[in-house]
Amino acid sequence: MPRPRRLPKVLTPDEQALLLRQFNKRYPSALRNLVAVQLMLYCGLRCGEVVAIRPEHVDLDTCRLLVRDGKGGKDRVVWFSDDLRDLIVRWLERCPRSAWLLCTRHATQLSTRYLRELVKRKAVASGLADGTRVTPHTLRHTFATDLLRETKNIRLTQKALGHASLTTTMIYTHVADEELERALRRRRGALLVTPRKQPQRHAHGFVRRPPEGSATLSLQVPRKQGPQGIVFSASRDPPLWGERAATVSRAREKTAAAWLP
Q1: Is residue 34 predicted with pLDDT exceeding 80?
Q2: Catalytic residues, which ones?
Q3: What pLDDT is stored for residue 123 in this prediction?
């Protein structure tokens, strides 16, 4: 029997902020590492896709990134924010000439092992819970979870991640399941409270429908317009008026009679 897949670990917004604060942008290597981490966290790139980016794959005018030869040899396009573009520009102004966007000081390609150790080291330094378990794929999981929560579109999430099968992306629907559970619990609580029916509004007061089996209607008239609690018959026989109702004008009688069922 196949073992069920474990839900991926994701970072909360506060944990993401703590992680990104660990990079001192005054140093070129820290600036490069921050770009790499944000590409995984905000664009959903895999570790191997980050180190394979070339300068010609990045369009700084449109904030467009072409991911070449992703998993399965497929290409896809993602977009990044203006803030990340500014970081990339700052890095390009300080980095050596290289065939790779994120290169070493000797203009060689970064290794995926270096990025994995970098993410774990920074996660531990930021004091995250289970920091030793934070990996580059954790950042990708966080991106997918946040994107699905914001868009509620599983197909869009699949396209951004570059998944060939929707089944792979369905693991992130645990977020939607949690939100569905909260919505159903709120709805169940609302159904337990029976809403109070409001009486029908009449031009001269409120008309209250009689209970089943009763042949009377009750008309409550505001104080400024006359007496309250006038009860008259709703049967086929002529109305029987009491002494208190005898003082009501003929115009009021016609108005009340017009609202009989």
Answers
A1: yes
A2: 46, 71, 137, 140, 163, 172
A3: 96
